Structures are given as structure tokens and as C-alpha cells.
Q: What sequence folds into this?
């Protein structure tokens, strides 16, 4: 069905971004604009997007229609036909529902967090722009439009990581994020090109790709699927392109919450689900994705156990949870993976916002041991933080349990016992490092009793709303073993996901095992950290503390090699070979010129003698020619 | 009757002396006189052949050359005076400021 409302989901935050940007310029050039103006524009526009999405969702729920909107034909060259068109099917409406909702809440939260900041208006302009780009990505009707959004979120992420660009580390972190993403994006665009050729140049919308997929050579599909996944590796921070995500925490905390936890990093999972028809055809790449996901999950979880920076722990846990999502989508359980994206958005955004509240209250202290030393009561943030930690650890009936357990069951059902074992061990580690952080932050005794003074309603209210979501979101996809109806799976029925059809007794065993292993992680963390002496903090050292020296390895492998090649080209090839050739030829001309100039010595007698010789020669020549 | 070859010989000697004077001497005045000598060598040649062929055309050319040489003398002498004023010398080797090399 055609719907002209679809484009307004994107346009609302885009207009917000432009207005905020314009007001910000006015603010810095002429007169002060109050923070209220910025925050009103910044929060109302995502709300409009959310309401439109909700309206479309309800309409779709009633009648089951799929919305489409063709804006204009962007390119039409021979066979290449790219329409600027939007697609609002079950998947994209599902995705944009929680993107706009969580995004809206984080916008509200940012009002409190950024209060008094010089770049208040700029922040909201970027933030709205990010939301608009993310919605372009989600609502795109073809891979090219998706790629516009894909790049747009990358740019916004870059702009927001280096929001405090006065600090060199932030700029370096932003560059790192952008460059690591470029590697992935390069793969992504190559993937689109491969698909284009594989299709023989049909209209490149998702629909026509899906219907033209039959009969295309398997090797081309494998290549295309793999290259597209390289893009997902970059955007969703999987091995080997994950290195940017922990450093991206240099940005303000609302950014970490929205971009680097709840929405942008899940774009890779969304993309794989969007191309589900492609990945169903190529199970080897699916398995590869699942393994990458499993190892990323494990790897990040191991690193997270030794980190001391509150935001970096959360960043690694994000990477770990993204690994779970890729296990699910790689094995063909698309709706299960997206369900984890959905629940993860709630509890991870909440954890980040809680962390942000703590950081603000302690005047930008991020080391968990130092925070613990100065801790006093912080009831709302403490409670919501606990809810988030429980949710991510997979304790029933919190949302994380349902989504994570479904992924574990999926791996088990597919017979991928290695992935299942890795995922189980990661679940143990997840519970351990999350509760390590919680016990150090809120439980371990300290001598400090002073109350925090900083409270802001705009910080606590979104936290409470998200906490409710983190508790209850899991029930949306209640599995049949608990008498549920798989609402999310049913809603995303178009994806042809595999479903879990284990016997109930097997499922009970699996659930018992995963709960047991999570509880084991919590108990280990409790024994070690509940009475931890926060005045003797752990240091980030050793093999794990140094993040397996991966950054150093990459530095050696890529940065130093590139630098070496550049220096070689600069010093040897350029200076010694190319310059020698160019300068040599010009020097030859200069030397010839100098020699000729010696004749022009202004000596009249010499000129006369030359003339004489010349004329003599001419006469002799003429004489001999005439034959006299 | 003096033979034709004698006239030609004399005019060639005059011309050659002029050429050698231009090339070998450094004094501008001497160079100027050598140039005049070359002109006169040519004039003599033209006049001789005019008589020999009973054709007056070469004699017309001779007269034109003489008159132009007179006009040229005025310019030449004034140029020499200016050159002398600038360098207080008439040595041609000093007047090399048009060359690319050393200033003089």
C-alpha cells in the first residue's frame, strides 16, 4: 500500500537536525538561544517519528498491509535503475518502532546529561541527524538507499565521538572508528556491486533481488553474501573489525547509549536479516557468520572481565551481545536475532544511561574502583542498573533471558555444539563481569557516606521507562514452552526464520542449564567482589587486561606497515627515482642553455667573425650548387 | 688601359681590409672606418662594372650607398659619443652588458 506518511518518519528528525543546526549557528554568531529551544526541537521530532511509526504499526497490525513509498527516481542509466523509495514492511516497522522509541528516550535523557554544555545545540543537531540516517537505513527499499543511511550513521558516529574535539584522544578515537568502518563499508559496497552483476542489472530493490535470486550462480551469491557481511563486521564491531567500539566510548554517554549500544551497531544484524533471502541460500556463509559471532562474543566477554572503565566494560558487553545476535541470524533464526536486538536495545541503553548518570554525579570519573570509593546512595540509578545487569545476565523473567535463551536453544537445535558451548561459556562470563561491575560499584564497602547532589528528572524518568521495558519486553516473544505465542516471531514471519521445535523436556533442560550457568557467574562474582577492597583496585595489566594486545598487533600489522610503505615511497621511490628522472631532464635543458648562452657574450668582434664564417659557408654552398 | 681585374682586385683588397678591421680591432672608431672601407670597396666594384657594361644603374646604387653612408655616419658618430660618455672608453670588449654572464 502506498503511504505518504512513511517519508515523514525520516523527515521529522531531519528537519529537527536542520533547525537545531541553524539555531546553533545563530546561537554562536549572534544571540544566545536557550537550551529549552534546542531540547524542544530535539525531543519533539523523534516523538513525531515514533507516533507515525506507531500509527503505521497499528494500521499494519489490523490489515496486514505493507507500506511503500516511491519518492522519485534517483538514477536511471540503461539497466541501472535506482529509485528513492521507502519500504515499511513488518521488519522495518518493527525496527523503527524501537529505534524511534529508545532514541526519543535518550534524547530526553541527553537534556539532563548535556545541561550547561557549550555545544548543547550542536549535540542535538547531530543527534537528530543520526536518528534520520538510522531511519533511512531501516526504511530503505533497496541496498543503495540502505547504504546512504549506513554511511550517514557512520558520519554521525564520527562527529559525535569527537564531540569534545579539544581532546586529542577523542579525535584519534573518532578517526579509528571511521577508518575501521571504512574497511567494512568497502566490503559492503563491493557486495552490492557483486549482487548487481549477479542479478544481471535488474531494478535493485530488495523485492526484485529476492525474486531474481533463483538460478544465480552459487559462488557469486557466496561472494556477495560474504562481502556484505564484511560491512556488517565493521558496523557491528565483530572480529576482526571490532577495535573501534571500545574507543568510541570517548563520546558523551548518551551517544554511547544510542549509537554504540542500542541502534547503530545493530545495523549489521538488521542488514543480514534484510538480506535473509540471500543468506538462506548460502548456508556456509551463514555458518561463518555464526562462528564469527560466537568468537566475538567470547573474546569480548573475556576482555570485559579485566576492564576498569565503566563505559568500556559496557562497550565490550555490547560487542559480546552483538556476537549472540550474529549467532542467531547466521544460523537462520532471523527473528530470534532481531528479538535479541530489541531487548538488548532496552537494557543496554538503560545500562549506559545509568553509567552516564553515575559519571555525571561523580564529575566525569569513569574508573569503577574510583567511583566505588566515592559512592553514596543513588537509589534510582542503582536499582535500574541492577535490573539492567540482571537482564543482560539472562536471569528469568527479565527480557535478556528470553532472547538469549532462544539463541542458545537455536544453536543447540542446529547441532552446532561448539557454538553452543562457546555461547554458554560466554553467558557465564557475561553474568560474571556484569556482576563484578555491579558489586564493585554498588555493594563493595567504602568509607564514604556523602550523598550525591546531582539529580535530574530528565535523567531518571527515561531510566525508569527503559527499566520497565527491560523487565517486560521479553514477554513479547514468550516461547510456547511457557505458554507464550511467539508474538515477535509471528510478526516477523516474512523472514522465513527457522523456528525452535525441540521437545519441551529438552528445552527445560537447556533453560535450566543456562540459568544455572548465569547464577554460577553471579556467585563467583559475589564471592570475589562483594567485599572487595575498592582502595586496592585491580589494574589493567596482563594478557587479558591489555585486551590480548590486539590493538598493538593491528598497529604493527597495518599502521606501521602502511607507514613503512609510505616512508619508503617518499624517501626512495619519490626522491631517488622519480625526482632523479624529472630533475635530471630539467637539469639537462638548463645545462644546454648555459652552454648556448656562452655564445651570446656581447663581444662585437666575435659576432662579426661568426657572421663572416657563416656568410662564407653560404657562399661556398651556393657556389658549389651553381656548379660554376 | 687598366684591366678590369685590377679594379676588381683593388676593391676586393679594400673589402678584405675592412672585414679584418671589424674583426680584429677593438677601437670603435677603427671598426667604423673599416665598415666604411667595406662599403667603398663595394662602391668601387659597382662603378667599375657600370663603366664596363655601359650601364648606369649600378652607379645609381653607388650614389645611394654614399648618401646613406653619410646619414649613417651622423648616427654612428653620435652613438659613439654616447658610448664614450657612459664608459669613458672606446674599447668594444668593455661593452658587454648585453651578455648573460658577468656584469661589466
A:
Amino acid at each position: 500500500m502506498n503511504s505518504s506518511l512513511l517519508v515523514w518518519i525520516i523527515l521529522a528528525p531531519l528537519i529537527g537536525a536542520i533547525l537545531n543546526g541553524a539555531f546553533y549557528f545563530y546561537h554562536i554568531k549572534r544571540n544566545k538561544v536557550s537550551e529549552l529551544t534546542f531540547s524542544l526541537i530535539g525531543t519533539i521530532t523523534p516523538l513525531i517519528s515514533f507516533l507515525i511509526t506507531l500509527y503505521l504499526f497499528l494500521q499494519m497490525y489490523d490489515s496486514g498491509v505493507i507500506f511503500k513509498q516511491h519518492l522519485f527516481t534517483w538514477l536511471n542509466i540503461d539497466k541501472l535503475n535506482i529509485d528513492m523509495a521507502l519500504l515499511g514492511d513488518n521488519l522495518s516497522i518493527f525496527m523503527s518502532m524501537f529505534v524511534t522509541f529508545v532514541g526519543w528516550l535518550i534524547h530526553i535523557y541527553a537534556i539532563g546529561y548535556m545541561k550547561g554544555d557549550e555545544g548543547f545545540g550542536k549535540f542535538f543537531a547531530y543527534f537528530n541527524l543520526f536518528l534520520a540516517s538510522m531511519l533511512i537505513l531501516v526504511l530503505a527499499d533497496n541496498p543503495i538507499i540502505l547504504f546512504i543511511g549506513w554511511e550517514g550513521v557512520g558520519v554521525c558516529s564520527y562527529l559525535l565521538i569527537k564531540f569534545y574535539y579539544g581532546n586529542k584522544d577523542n579525535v584519534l578515537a573518532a578517526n579509528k572508528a571511521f577508518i575501521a568502518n571504512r574497511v567494512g563499508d568497502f566490503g559492503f559496497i563491493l557486495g552490492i556491486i557483486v549482487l548487481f552483476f549477479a542479478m544481471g542489472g535488474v531494478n535493485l530493490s530488495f523485492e526484485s533481488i529476492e525474486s531474481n535470486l533463483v538460478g544465480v550462480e552459487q559462488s557469486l551469491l557466496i561472494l556477495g553474501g560474504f562481502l556484505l557481511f564484511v560491512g556488517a563486521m565493521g558496523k557491528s564491531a565483530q572480529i576482526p573489525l571490532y577495535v573501534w567500539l571500545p574507543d568510541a566510548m570517548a563520546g558523551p554517554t548518551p551517544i554511547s547509549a544510542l549509537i554504540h549500544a542500542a541502534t547503530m551497531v545493530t545495523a549489521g544484524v538488521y542488514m543480514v536479516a534484510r538480506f535473509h533471502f540471500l543468506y538462506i541460500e548460502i548456508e556456509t556463509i551463514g555458518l561463518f557468520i555464526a562462528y564469527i559471532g560466537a568468537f566475538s562474543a567470547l573474546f569480548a566477554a573475556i576482555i570485559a572481565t579485566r576492564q576498569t572503565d565503566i563505559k568500556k566494560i559496557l562497550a565490550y558487553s555490547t560487542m559480546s551481545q552483538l556476537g549472540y545476535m550474529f549467532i542467531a541470524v547466521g544460523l537462520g533464526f532471523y527473528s530470534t536475532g532481531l528479538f535479541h536486538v530489541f531487548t538488548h536495545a532496552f537494557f543496554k541503553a538503560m545500562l549506559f544511561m545509568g553509567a552516564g548518570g553515575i559519571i555525571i554525579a561523580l564529575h566525569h570519573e569513569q574508573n569503577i574502583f574510583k567511583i566505588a570509593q566515592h559512592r553514596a546512595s543513588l537509589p534510582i540509578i542503582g536499582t535500574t542498573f541492577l535490573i539492567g545487569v540482571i537482564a543482560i545476565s539472562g536471569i528469568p523473567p527479565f527480557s535478556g533471558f528470553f532472547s538469549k535463551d532462544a539463541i542458545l536453544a537455536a544453536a543447540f537445535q542446529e547441532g552446532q555444539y561448539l557454538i553452543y558451548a562457546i555461547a554458554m561459556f560466554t553467558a557465564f562470563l557475561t553474568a560474571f563481569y556484569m556482576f563484578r561491575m555491579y558489586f564493585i560499584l554498588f555493594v563493595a564497602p567504602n568509607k564514604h557516606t556523602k550523598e550525591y547532589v546531582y539529580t535530574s528528572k530528565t535523567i531518571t524518568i527515561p531510566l525508569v521507562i527503559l527499566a520497565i521495558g527491560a523487565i517486560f519486553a521479553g514477554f513479547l516473544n514468550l516461547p510456547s514452552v511457557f505458554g507464550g505465542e511467539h508474538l515477535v516471531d509471528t510478526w516477523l514471519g516474512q523472514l522465513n526464520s527457522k523456528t525452535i521445535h525441540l521437545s519441551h523436556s529438552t528445552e527445560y533442560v537447556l533453560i535450566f542449564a543456562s540459568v544455572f550457568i548465569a547464577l554460577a557467574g553471579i556467585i563467583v562474582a559475589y564471592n570475589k567482589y562483594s567485599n572487595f577492597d575498592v582502595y586496592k583496585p585491580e589494574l589493567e595489566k596482563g594478557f587479558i587486561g591489555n585486551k590480548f594486545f590486539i590493538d598493538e598487533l593491528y598497529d604493527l600489522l597495518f599502521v606501521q606497515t602502511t607507514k613503512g610503505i609510505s616512508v619508503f615511497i617518499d624517501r626512495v621511490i619519490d626522491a631517488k627515482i622519480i625526482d632523479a628522472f624529472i630533475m635530471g631532464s630539467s637539469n639537462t635543458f638548463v645545462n644546454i642553455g648555459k652552454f648556448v648562452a656562452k655564445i651570446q657574450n656581447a663581444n662585437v668582434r666575435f659576432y662579426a667573425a661568426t657572421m663572416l664564417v657563416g656568410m662564407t659557408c653560404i657562399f661556398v654552398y651556393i657556389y658549389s650548387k651553381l656548379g660554376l | 688601359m687598366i684591366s678590369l681585374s685590377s679594379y676588381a682586385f683593388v676593391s676586393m683588397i679594400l673589402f678584405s681590409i675592412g672585414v679584418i678591421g671589424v674583426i680584429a680591432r677593438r677601437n670603435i672608431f677603427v671598426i667604423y672606418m673599416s665598415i666604411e672601407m667595406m662599403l667603398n670597396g663595394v662602391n668601387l666594384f659597382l662603378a667599375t662594372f657600370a663603366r664596363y657594361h655601359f650601364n648606369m644603374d649600378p652607379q645609381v646604387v653607388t650614389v645611394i650607398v654614399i648618401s646613406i653612408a653619410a646619414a649613417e655616419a651622423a648616427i654612428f658618430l653620435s652613438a659613439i659619443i654616447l658610448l664614450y660618455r657612459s664608459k669613458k672608453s672606446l674599447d668594444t670588449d668593455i661593452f658587454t652588458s648585453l651578455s648573460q654572464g658577468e656584469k661589466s
User: Anything to note?
Assistant: The CA atoms of residues 341 and 507 of chain A lie 22 Å apart. The first strand of chain A starts at residue 67 and ends at 77. The mean pLDDT of chain A is 87. Chain A touches chain B at residues 597-598, 600-605, 608-609, 612 (CB under 8 Å).
